């Protein structure tokens, strides 16, 4: 029995072999750390890693060694594609799944690939190089090991990318063999032979560091810019200014383990898992470094929690073994006593021996009693600890409830005045009304979340009151299902409603029960893929005493791991690619069904879908019957509206400034800088910088309305600042006033050629400067009006003839491609354009004089005018086709813009056409 109480060491469920070409360098280390992070969640998996130390022959031997050891799956990162291929093919042909990571073999005999697209990395580097050099300059390319797939792909992509920019030429190619020291002699010779080189593209960050050291020795670090690849250690090199940028090439360790586990568990998986790449430069490097630090911190917390869990399990096993030992001893004493009683009846001669034995047994029993007392004392301590834990939990829940109530008060105080302003202030501008509507919608969302949390607490303490009335459950459920018909249609999901009879009477509280079916249908739609089916069926039970409502989907199903916890509060299982919820929905739904003395159960088959069934009694006790009629329930689906965030530092605004116009002053002389700032602050918001590099960075972050810049500055001159501003489409629209003491005509011509809108020589007339600024801003406003006219109903497409028009054309194309999405946000649009949310907002505001949300709404309403002229489309179909969350929201927006409802507009134009 004691042997059965101890836990045998667990045998690994899966053995994964990993053949790594090398473990040197931060990128390879990060790959292995990513695998170990993912494996920390799967203690049943054993990973064996062998390091080939950049030797193809050794890697072949190690792969065959792993196969002989009996691995279940092979992960391989080849050093050279060709030589390693035979060993990998042997493993594959023996039935062992093969996952390639980062680099490929030359054969098609593999199960899956995880890694970046080296061709795309090269193309991205080429585009970024063209941006840095303004599409004209000379380049040196430092390649990795010849024959590796990474070297081949990155070189191919870089060459393909440069074909778009004929002004960029590769003067020399240097083989660095992935090591920073190996390239130095050849690169030194190449730079001496080609002094006109202005940029170096290195196939990894380590070689980029070596290139910087060469440039440092030659004294050309300021003239030659360096781009690297990998992005892990490269982030710090970018932050230190050693690299101008690095192309992120994700190690993919976590992705490789996830793919391997899906293969081993015979779950669906993708054969080609291509990891994306981004450019890391000064605009985003700090954010990425902070994110990496947070990931490391979170991993350490997870490891500490796992260590604590192991200690608790060991303590529990030890105590359990001791308790079983005591029970065995007690059983032994009972057996000995029975044997003594039987022996006394058989033989009087051994009475004395039995007496002695009984005395010994008394001692043993005394020891057992003492041990039992100790066990009882320990149990009492555990009960005290459990009671203390319950008390602490109750105190936390009370605090949680009180805090939720406290949140309701300020939310109500916010919502009340906003509602009053929206309903009783006809003089509000359209922008102010939209902003107030945004505040109202987000306040209502916060209030709804607080109400859900309070519902949870009410159920926990038994304070949720049910006022049930008798009604037709078929009608009640059908109205809820109808609210999901259009979203399901847009998602390509078929919605079926089946009932055994048109009328099925039951006692229920509609204000409570609607939350149950809304949650079940929302989850079904959330997890059902395109072309899937959701079936809602209703019928009485066999005994006729209850009604059964089932919601069945054809989604991914619920995993075995999640089934035991699916109705636990705040539990969030594996939800795949969909957005995670709060973990309250199903637990709240089950609690509300139980309040109706019903049941909520589920069944699921992985890969085939899930079915949630609500069973409600047809008759309820008197204590659940309502004393007054239940109030009707109203469902509101508002269009999601993003909240604008401000990036960068807060502008220092003088007391006199009331304008929203932002002017950036770039001047290295502190007294002149202060004078310009004070002069302009009387009319505008003003930010200032004391050097060209800082000024350009602030310009790309803040997107000001106008820039006043000095010409003679250390580091980056004013002319270079102007050239970079006009070459970057984020800032190409900004008017620039150049100030300088150089007043020669050819110098003024040089300033205008650089792209300056006005060239003023020192000393300048402050009044003339102020009036010039006003004139430039007025001209900019006229240009905005021109662009707005181009985006009218008659010209849906903007012809790209300059950077601003190209920006508008790209922005319009992205929005029009996503018009049907009800949840289209400013973040998605900005991400598609490759800029931040604040940069997008400031750019649109500067070019069009309006916000991004207004621009999206304007395009939708312009498209609506065209679609309303089609008599075959209903107004509801037009609303949903253009991404409005409801027909009422569409009608309100249309009337606000055109002073006509959609139906009035249609009648007016169709009648005139006939």
UniProtKB/TrEMBL annotation:
Its EC number is 2.7.13.3. Pfam families: HATPase_c, HisKA, HTH_18, Peripla_BP_4, Response_reg. Gene3D superfamilies: 1.10.287.130, 3.40.50.2300, Histidine kinase-like ATPase, C-terminal domain, Homeodomain-like. Residues 809-908 form the HTH araC/xylS-type domain. The keyword Transcription applies. The modification 4-aspartylphosphate is found at residue 710. Residues 662-777 form the Response regulatory domain. Keywords: Coiled coil, DNA-binding, Phosphoprotein, Plasmid, Transcription, Transcription regulation. It catalyses: ATP + protein L-histidine = ADP + protein N-phospho-L-histidine. Residues 347-392 form a coiled coil. Residues 402-620 form the Histidine kinase domain. InterPro entries: CheY-like_superfamily, HATPase_C_sf, HATPase_dom, His_kinase_dom, HisK_dim/P_dom, HisK_dim/P_sf, Homeodomain-like_sf, HTH_AraC. SMART domains: HATPase_c (SM00387), HisKA (SM00388), HTH_ARAC (SM00342), REC (SM00448). The keyword Transmembrane helix does not apply. PANTHER family: HYBRID SIGNAL TRANSDUCTION HISTIDINE KINASE C (PTHR43547:SF2), TWO-COMPONENT HISTIDINE KINASE (PTHR43547). This is histidine kinase.
């Amino acid at each position: 029995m004691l042997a059965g109480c101890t836990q045998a060491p667990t045998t690994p469920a899966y053995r994964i072999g990993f053949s790594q070409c090398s473990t040197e360098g931060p990128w390879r280390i990060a790959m292995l750390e990513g695998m170990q992070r993912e494996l920390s969640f799967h203690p049943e998996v054993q990973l064996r890693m062998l390091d080939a130390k950049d030797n193809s022959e050794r890697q072949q031997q190690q792969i065959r060694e792993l196969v002989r050891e009996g691995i279940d799956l092979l992960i391989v990162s080849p050093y050279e594609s060709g030589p390693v291929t035979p060993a990998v093919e042997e493993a594959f042909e023996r039935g062992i799944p093969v996952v390639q990571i980062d680099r490929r073999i030359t054969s098609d005999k593999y199960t899956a690939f995880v890694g970046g697209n080296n061709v795309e990395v090269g193309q991205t580097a080429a585009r970024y190089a063209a941006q840095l050099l303004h599409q004209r300059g000379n380049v040196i390319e430092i390649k990795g090991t010849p024959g590796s797939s990474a070297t081949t792909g990155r070189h191919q992509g870089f060459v393909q990318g440069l074909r778009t920019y004929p002004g960029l030429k590769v003067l020399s190619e240097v083989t660095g063999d992935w090591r920073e020291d190996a390239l130095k002699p050849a690169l030194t010779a190449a730079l001496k032979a080609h002094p006109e080189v202005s940029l170096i593209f290195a196939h990894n960050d380590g070689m980029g560091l070596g290139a910087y050291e060469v440039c440092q020795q030659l004294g050309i670090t300021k003239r030659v810019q360096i781009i690297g690849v990998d992005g892990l250690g490269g982030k710090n090199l970018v932050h230190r200014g050693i690299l101008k940028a690095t192309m992120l090439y994700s190690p993919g360790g976590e992705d490789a383990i996830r793919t391997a586990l899906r293969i081993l568990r015979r779950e669906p998986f993708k054969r080609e898992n291509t990891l994306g790449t981004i450019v890391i430069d000064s605009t985003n490097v700090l954010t990425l470094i902070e994110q990496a630090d947070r990931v490391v911190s979170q991993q350490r917390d997870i490891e500490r929690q796992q260590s604590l869990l192991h200690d608790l399990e060991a303590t529990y096993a030890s105590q359990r073994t001791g308790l079983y030992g005591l029970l065995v001893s007690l059983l032994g004493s009972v057996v000995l006593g029975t044997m003594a009683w039987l022996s006394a009846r058989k033989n009087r001669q051994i009475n004395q021996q039995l007496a002695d034995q009984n005395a010994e047994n008394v001692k043993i029993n005394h020891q057992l009693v003492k041990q039992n007392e100790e066990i009882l004392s320990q149990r009492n301590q555990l009960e005290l600890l459990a009671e203390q834990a319950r008390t602490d939990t109750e105190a936390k829940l009370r605090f949680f409830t009180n805090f939720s109530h406290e949140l309701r008060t300020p939310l109500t105080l916010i919502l009340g005045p906003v509602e009053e302003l929206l309903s009783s202030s006809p003089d509000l501008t359209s922008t102010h009304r939209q902003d107030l509507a945004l505040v109202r919608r987000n306040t209502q969302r916060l209030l709804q979340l607080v109400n859900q949390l309070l519902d949870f607490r009410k159920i926990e303490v038994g304070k949720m009151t049910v006022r049930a009335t008798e009604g037709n459950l078929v009608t009640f459920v059908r109205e809820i299902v109808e609210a999901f018909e259009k979203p399901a249609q847009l998602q390509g999901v078929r919605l079926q409603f089946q009932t055994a009879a048109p009328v099925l009477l039951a006692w229920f509280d509609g204000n409570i029960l609607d939350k149950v079916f809304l949650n079940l249908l929302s989850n079904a739609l959330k997890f059902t893929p395109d072309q899937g089916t959701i079936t809602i069926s209703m019928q009485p039970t066999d005994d006729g005493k209850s009604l059964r409502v089932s919601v069945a989907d054809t989604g991914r199903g619920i995993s075995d791991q999640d089934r035991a916890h699916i109705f636990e509060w705040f539990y969030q299982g594996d939800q795949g690619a969909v957005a995670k919820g709060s973990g309250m929905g199903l637990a709240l739904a089950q609690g509300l069904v139980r309040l109706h003395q019903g049941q909520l159960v589920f069944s699921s088959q992985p890969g085939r879908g899930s079915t949630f069934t609500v069973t409600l009694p047809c008759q309820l006790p008197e204590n659940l019957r309502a004393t007054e009629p239940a109030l009707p329930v109203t469902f509101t689906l508002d269009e999601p509206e993003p909240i604008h965030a401000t990036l960068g530092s807060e502008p220092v605004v003088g007391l006199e400034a009331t304008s929203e116009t932002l002017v950036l002053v770039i001047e290295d002389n502190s007294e002149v800088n202060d004078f310009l700032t004070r002069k302009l602050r009387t009319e505008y918001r003003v930010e200032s910088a004391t050097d060209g590099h800082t000024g350009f960075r602030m310009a790309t972050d803040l997107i000001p309305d106008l820039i006043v810049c000095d010409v003679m500055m250390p580091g980056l001159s004013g002319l270079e600042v102007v050239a970079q501003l006009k070459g970057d489409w984020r800032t190409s629209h900004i008017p620039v006033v150049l100030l300088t003491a150089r007043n020669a005509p050819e110098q003024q011509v040089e300033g205008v050629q650089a792209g300056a809108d006005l060239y003023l020589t020192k000393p300048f007339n402050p009044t003339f400067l102020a009036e010039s600024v006003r004139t430039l801003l007025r001209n900019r406003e006229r240009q905005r009006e021109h662009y707005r006219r181009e985006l009218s109903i008659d010209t849906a497409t903007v012809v790209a003839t300059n950077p601003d028009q190209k920006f508008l054309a790209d922005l319009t194309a992205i929005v029009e491609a996503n018009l049907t999405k009800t949840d289209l946000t400013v973040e998605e649009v900005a991400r598609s354009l490759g800029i931040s949310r604040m940069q997008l907002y400031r750019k649109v505001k500067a070019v069009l004089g309006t916000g991004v949300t207004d621009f999206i709404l304007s395009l939708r309403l312009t498209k609506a005018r065209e679609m309303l002229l089609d008599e075959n489309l209903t107004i509801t179909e037009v609303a949903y086709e253009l991404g409005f969350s409801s027909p009422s929201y569409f009608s309100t927006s249309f009337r606000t813009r055109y002073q006509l409802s959609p139906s009035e507009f249609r009648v007016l134009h169709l009648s005139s056409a006939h």
